[in-house]
Amino acid sequence: MQSRGYFGLGVEGISKPMNAGTLMRTAHAFGASFVFAVSPYVDIRGIRKSDTSGTADQVPYYEWATVDDIALPRGCQIVGIELVEESIEMPSFRHPDRAAYILGPERGSLSPEMLARCDHVVKIPISFCVNVGIAGAIALYDRMISRGRFAERPVSAGGPVAPRKAHVHGEQVFRTKKTVKKATPRRVQAPE
């Protein structure tokens, strides 16, 4: 589904195990490289009722007590998903190759410390907040459709009229030119 890069999905201050499980299952379904939680108020291990895919057994899970404790790979950008005035509307946002998406808790928002730590803050262009699990699914779906390889959408209603184009590999590229020495024939004398 995804062409390059990796992503993770996490939440700050989550308190409901069903929502945590839904987020983890969604991340797993979309091919996340990792999942994480910052200051969770729920025992993440108790989420199996809604995470029936067993994400914690399949994908690395990281938990940090505070925003300052977050340790992500070099080059990984934190993308906050939050309904604040200065947020970029998601349909206009170009997703980074390496991203860690973070959502706020139920009945709350990302902390000021987390917002300050974010490289980007995006919002889903809707009238009011939706469930944290739904918001996570929308964000990962947007990443998939904007970065994936799919057939072009038709002009009229319905599915594509032509399948997506097959990937074509380019010519082999050599960084340095090597010269091949031609072998010169040797004369072999017969034994006397």
UniProtKB/TrEMBL annotation:
The keyword Transport does not apply. It comes from the Bacteria. Gene3D superfamilies: 3.40.1280.10. CDD domains: SpoU-like. Residues 11-141 form the tRNA/rRNA methyltransferase SpoU type domain. Keywords: Methyltransferase, Transferase. GO terms for biological process: methylation; RNA processing. PANTHER family: RRNA METHYLTRANSFERASE 3 (PTHR43191), RRNA METHYLTRANSFERASE 3, MITOCHONDRIAL (PTHR43191:SF2). This is RNA methyltransferase.
